[in-house]
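One such given next:
>
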Amino acid sequence: QVQLQESGGGLVQAGGSLRLSCVASGLTLSGYAMGWFRQAPGEEREFVAAITWSDGNPYYADFVKGRFTISRDKAKKTMYLQMNSLKPEDTAVYYCNAQSDYWGQGTQVTVSS
């Protein structure tokens, strides 16, 4: 069955870094995109970044450009989000998305000031 498993969340101080991972299984990725969304308490879920699986073309929300980098390892069926220069406003649950309608369970990212 379909499974998306995130990892790498945690607690860091402002200015620190985290690397999130999402391992996909049970679904076809070729011809589709994978991405990251986040949701802070009391806020709507928002798009963070996405990557086309076949050619690796990245897409970013404006608020993370220059700080976050999305990538994927096709052989490992794993997507990554390298998060640098983290800010307290980056605090949220980060969700892995595949084929638009499949979601992981989320991983908590907390950035302290």
In short: The chain has a mean pLDDT of 96. The radius of gyration is 13 Å.
